[in-house]
């Protein structure tokens, strides 16, 4: 550790004189301003104090006076060991005969006072040529003088080195956190370092003689705090009555122990220390300061050593200890928090016998006298100095931070609760170890509430200091070097979770259990697990109802004690997971041994009604040690009840265009086609494998959805792709190219394929930004009458269908001049067309045909819904209340033989209008990101909705999720879904994609009707046409569709104290019943606000964030569900923030 830091520092060739800042290490919304000649200015954004955390600048060692904050009228002067001591006190400005050169400098630059730098140093404090009693502080009358005097003082033969006096600054804009949780449970870091596992081993050893002493060199400690007063060290040399407490009898005004400090019974306040005023013995700041900055020392002390087992508050990490406190902040500095004489505090603690000294401060700049002081403290006094690495997110190898980077100091970086480097924490090869430093709950001034949550390397450092003290409790005979080595070697590896910082976070995360446990206990853990299940449907996935056998491989780690009578017990909190065999007997396990559980020992059967998605199985590994004491370890295994089609998901680079389903041959095998983000066409077989010779490089930017159709009439479908620059290509599934036509026109909207001329082979229809409508045969030739000149550019796609019911298909296309066109197959505009619309069309038009005839539906950019008759007249015009977020679709919502023009708005409401002006509304309750799909199973309508967060929900005819959905995928979904029977088993698969994956979900319901809206714009030909006749419509009782008049409103949302809930409906009476319930995101009931309450046209409810037991719930997302008799269900998301 020492050599590593020394080599890194020497590689920078740092100069040994100058000035540097030191930072106490907590984070905040902070930036440095280097525009001043001298001093690093700390800018804190106080406007968001709940986001700003703790930062302390301790200016204690320095290298450049022009880039750091220093005392501008002071210098530190270290004399050589052989030099005579200087007289201290006020300087008399006249010539001195014994030191004429020094006297001349003092006169020339008007030095007013000289005092010793370390008041706690005596004649024994000499290390490698440095006599610490001969390091002095010079005060100058003018702040400009020190810069001029440095060179002349350094040139004196009796002077070893000269530097500016660095400053210490603290800023703590931190808001306290309140909770009703037990305080010990709020100390998550105790679990992370496994301290609580170590405490139960304390009866395995005898308490060491004497107390382990922890020095806290900081802003002072609130000794009135009930967690601090009992653990503060009482100096026995000043405890006159020997009662172990600070009493009036001890305060006799004498330096009883002869250490130079009068009545230092309970530490020392160095903030005013000088030769004329040596400070006092009160280490408590009288107040907590602005943003509690003066509570920093109390917070740090609580982490390492708050009183344990006293029935209140928290517990420190250490055991069998006392805390030596020194105070270095001034009582009147309520907002800046400067520290003074911090290195004097280190020496003071060491000379009182401190085993560990914590320094949650530091700064840039190397000063050799400081290094010699640390060396002496470690070698002569046996104290281990632990220091924070800093909060600049810097690499300390290139931007050294002191005292943490000095040789012999244990340097600590900060981690978050997930064991990843905290965003603010410094790092580098100089780091020795890391510890939790985010969300650390500890003590502050008692009158300010006593406790607060802070973050910073300031908090990580005492976690390590307390851990070293705890290890010393078990191994008091170890030397300081051996203690540090034991802690470093026992750390948990971090590189796998911190790849960008591999090797730069020290030996790992501190783990006191690993340091202590091997001497007393076994360490049995799960090394590996395997799964076998009855794959009843042959999809290669675990489905509800299939029996699962789990085997675990255990290891008793090398170097730990043996374990006896080991067994594994499985359990699950999920009531739909049935554990038919729950116990596996392992037997005895010597250290270093491995053992599998037997096949069939642990068997789990998910209930057939269990929803798809992740499930969790928990295991307890039980046994005893050599003394017969019980051992217990926990292990969790997450399984996925999956509808994944076999061989899926697959990883590919995707663009956001839809995935197409291709019928590749007469044997009905199905393939998937898509364009990746490198503009390559890819074709996958039903096993998810790329089919040769694909991928095929298309060479240009492609974001227009591809079209799939049997273009050459051979019974196999081809794939047509169109670049945004108008290059059209048609490929067969064997990769051969049938058409390569360059229109040389920009295309924005979708294109389509359909048989317009009745020859049995579809043509390709394209509208362009050159104001043209093309209809191309497979030969690349235009049909007669085409291309047609449009009235304006066409940024949206085309729709193809028999609009006027003459048995021939027409083309619908919108233009940018607010017109909608209808052309026949010869390129002629039909009578009554074009139609002028009240705004530009937002999406591709749709053509619907039902028992009442055909209509065309469009949505304008001004959010108007328009349904038009074949003659161009308006059937319906509606101003929509919310913005429509994606392409519309067609479906028969209520199975009455009339198609509804449907869409999803920005409030995630599914809204449909039919040709008779009936409006239907269903609130999906999720953030849908692609147009829903429609199919039929067991003659029942199914709606497929894809949530951006990865949930795929299949709704039934009552618009409630089917028993097998929602299916939660472990990644976000950002593409259009498609439906297809990939494996030919008679049921459909939903194909979705996101985050570079393609997934195919095998729906467990057989197809019962060929009608479906199965892809983007209805089908793979992208015709945007849907037809339904009366024979295919079956009346249903539609309880899932919510009447337009019913509304559920909440305010405010997010909320803190309470939320107001209003449910209203113009047609509601007392005959209907309302139930209003709150669920968490896992579907567990939290609170019932109303249960079958008589309805009214206007009802108000309130929720205050409490559950059924009256306890406040945690911050997070909750679901508000309103059920209205005969009218369905509304779900809204609530966000509760404490």
TrEMBL record:
InterPro entries reported for this sequence: EF_Hand_1_Ca_BS, FG-GAP, Integrin_alpha_N, Peptidase_S8/S53_dom, Peptidase_S8/S53_dom_sf, Peptidase_S8/S53_subtilisin, Peptidase_S8_Asp-AS, Peptidase_S8_His-AS
Active-site residues per Swiss-Prot or TrEMBL entry: 218, 296, 458
The keyword Transmembrane belongs to this UniProt entry's keyword annotation: yes
Alphabetized UniProt keyword annotations: Hydrolase, Membrane, Protease, Serine protease, Signal, Transmembrane, Transmembrane helix
Superkingdom as given in the UniProt entry: Bacteria
Any GO MF annotation of the entry: serine-type endopeptidase activity
Segments passing through the bilayer: 52-71
Keyword Translocase found: no
Domain Peptidase S8/S53: 211-493
Protein name (Swiss-Prot/TrEMBL): Peptidase S8 and S53 subtilisin kexin sedolisin
Biological source species: Caldithrix abyssi DSM 13497
Phylogenetic classification of the source organism: Bacteria, Pseudomonadati, Calditrichota, Calditrichia, Calditrichales
């Amino acid at each position: 550790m020492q050599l590593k830091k020394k080599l890194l520092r020497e590689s920078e060739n740092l100069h040994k004189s100058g000035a540097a800042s030191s930072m106490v290490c907590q984070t905040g919304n902070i930036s440095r301003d280097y525009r001043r000649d001298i001093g690093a200015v700390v800018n804190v954004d106080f406007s968001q104090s709940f986001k700003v955390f703790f930062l302390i600048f301790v200016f204690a060692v320095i290298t450049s006076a022009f880039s750091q904050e220093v005392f501008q009228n002071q210098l530190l002067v270290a004399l050589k060991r052989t030099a005579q001591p200087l007289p201290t006190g006020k300087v008399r400005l006249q010539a001195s005969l014994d030191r004429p050169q020094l006297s001349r400098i003092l006169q020339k630059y008007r030095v007013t006072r000289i005092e010793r730098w370390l008041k706690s140093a005596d004649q024994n404090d000499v290390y490698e040529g440095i006599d610490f009693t001969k390091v002095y502080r010079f005060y100058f009358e003018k702040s400009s003088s020190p810069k001029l005097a440095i060179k002349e003082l350094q040139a004196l033969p009796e002077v070893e080195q000269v530097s500016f006096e660095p400053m210490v600054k603290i800023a703590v804009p931190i808001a306290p956190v309140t909770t009703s949780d037990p305080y010990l449970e709020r100390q998550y870091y105790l679990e992370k370092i496994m301290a609580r596992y170590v405490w139960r081993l304390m009866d395995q050893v005898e308490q060491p003689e004497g107390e382990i002493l922890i020095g806290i060199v900081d802003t002072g400690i609130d000794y009135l705090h009930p967690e601090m007063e009992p653990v503060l060290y009482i100096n026995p040399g000043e405890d006159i009555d020997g009662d172990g407490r600070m009493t009036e009898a001890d305060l006799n005004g004498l330096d009883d122990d002869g250490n130079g400090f009068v009545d230092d019974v309970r530490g020392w306040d160095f903030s005013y220390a000088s030769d004329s005023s040596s400070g006092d013995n009160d280490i408590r700041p009288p107040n907590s300061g602005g943003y509690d900055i003066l509570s920093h020392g109390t917070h740090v002390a609580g982490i390492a050593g708050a009183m344990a087992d006293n029935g209140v508050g928290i517990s420190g990490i250490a055991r069998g200890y006392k805390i030596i406190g020194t105070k270095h902040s001034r009582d009147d500095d309520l907002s800046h928090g400067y520290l003074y004489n911090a290195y004097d505090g280190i020496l003071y603690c060491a000379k009182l016998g401190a085993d560990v000294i914590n320094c949650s401060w530091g700064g840039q700049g190397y000063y050799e006298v400081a290094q010699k002081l640390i060396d002496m403290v470690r070698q002569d006094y046996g104290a281990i100095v632990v220091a924070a690495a800093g909060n600049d997110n810097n690499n300390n190898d290139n931007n050294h931070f002191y005292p943490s980077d000095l040789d012999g100091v244990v340097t600590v970086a900060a981690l978050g609760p997930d064991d990843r480097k905290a965003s603010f924490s410094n790092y580098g090869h100089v780091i020795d170890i890391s510890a939790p430093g985010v969300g650390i709950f500890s003590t502050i001034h008692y009158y300010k509430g006593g406790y607060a949550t802070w973050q910073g390397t300031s908090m990580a450092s005492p976690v390590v200091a307390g851990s070293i003290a705890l290890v010393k409790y078990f191994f008091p005979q170890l030397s300081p070097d051996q203690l540090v080595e034991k802690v470093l070697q026992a750390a948990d590896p971090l590189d796998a979770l911190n790849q960008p910082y591999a090797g730069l976070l020290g030996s790992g995360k501190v783990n006191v259990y690993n340091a202590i446990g091997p001497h007393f206990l076994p360490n049995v853990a799960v090394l590996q697990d395997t799964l076998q299940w009855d794959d009843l449907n042959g999809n290669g996935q675990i489905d509800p109802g299939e029996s699962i056998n789990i085997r675990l491989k255990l290891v008793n780690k090398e170097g730990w004690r043996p374990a006896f009578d080991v067994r594994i017990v499985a359990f699950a909190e999920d009531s739909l997971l049935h554990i038919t065999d729950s116990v596996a007997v392992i037997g005895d396990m010597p250290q270093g041994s491995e053992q599998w559980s037997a096949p069939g020992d642990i068997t789990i059967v998910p209930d057939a009604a269990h929803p798809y998605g992740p499930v969790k199985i928990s295991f307890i590994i039980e046994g005893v040690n050599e003394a017969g004491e019980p051992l217990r370890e926990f292990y969790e295994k997450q399984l996925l009840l999956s509808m994944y089609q076999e061989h899926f998901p697959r990883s590919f680079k995707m663009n956001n265009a839809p995935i197409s389903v291709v019928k590749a041959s007469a044997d009905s095998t199905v393939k998937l086609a898509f364009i990746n983000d490198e503009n390559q066409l890819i074709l996958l077989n039903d096993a998810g494998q790329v089919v040769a010779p694909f991928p095929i490089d298309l060479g240009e930017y492609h974001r227009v959805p591809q079209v799939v159709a049997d273009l050459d009439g051979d019974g196999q479908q081809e794939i047509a792709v169109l670049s945004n620059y108008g290059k059209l290509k048609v490929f067969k599934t064997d990769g051969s190219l049938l058409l390569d036509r360059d229109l040389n026109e920009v295309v924005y909207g979708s294109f389509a394929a359909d048989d317009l001329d009745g020859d049995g082979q579809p043509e390709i229809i394209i509208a362009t930004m050159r104001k043209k409508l093309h209809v191309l045969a497979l030969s690349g030739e235009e049909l007669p009458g085409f291309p047609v000149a449009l009235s304006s550019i066409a940024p949206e796609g085309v729709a193809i269908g028999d609009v006027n019911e003459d048995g021939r298909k027409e083309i619908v296309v919108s233009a940018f001049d607010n017109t909608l066109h209808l052309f026949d197959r010869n390129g002629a505009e039909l009578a009554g067309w074009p139609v002028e619309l009240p705004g530009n069309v937002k999406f591709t038009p749709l053509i619907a045909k039902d028992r009442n005839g055909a209509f065309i539906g469009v949505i304008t950019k001004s959010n108007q819904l328009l349904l038009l008759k074949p003659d161009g007249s308006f059937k319906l015009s509606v101003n929509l209340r919310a913005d429509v977020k994606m392409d519309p679709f067609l479906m028969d919502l209520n199975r009455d033989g009339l198609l509804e023009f449907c869409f999803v708005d920005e409030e995630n409401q599914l809204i449909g209008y039919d040709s008779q002006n009936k409006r239907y509304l269903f609130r999906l309750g999720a953030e849908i990101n692609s147009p829903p799909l429609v199919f039929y199973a067991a003659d029942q309508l199914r709606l497929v909705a894809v949530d951006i967060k990865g949930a795929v929900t299949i709704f039934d005819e009552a618009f409630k999720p089917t028993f097998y959905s929602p299916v939660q995928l472990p990644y976000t979904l950002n593409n259009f879904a498609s439906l297809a029977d990939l494996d030919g088993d008679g049921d459909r698969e939903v194909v979705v994609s996101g985050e570079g994956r393609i997934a195919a979900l095998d729906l467990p319901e057989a197809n019962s009707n060929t009608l479906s809206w199965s892809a983007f714009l209805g089908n793979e030909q992208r015709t945007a046409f849907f037809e339904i006749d009366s024979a295919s419509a079956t009346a249903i009782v539609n309880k899932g569709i919510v009447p337009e008049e019913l509304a559920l409103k909440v305010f405010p949302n997010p909320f803190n104290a309470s939320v107001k809930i209003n449910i209203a409906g113009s047609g509601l009476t007392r005959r209907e019943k309302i139930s209003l319930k709150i669920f968490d995101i896992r579907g567990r009931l939290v609170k019932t606000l109303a249960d079958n309450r008589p309805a009214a046209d206007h009802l108000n409810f309130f929720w205050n964030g409490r559950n059924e037991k009256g306890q406040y719930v945690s911050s997070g997302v909750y679901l508000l569900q309103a059920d209205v008799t005969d009218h369905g269900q509304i779900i809204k998301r609530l966000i509760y923030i404490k």
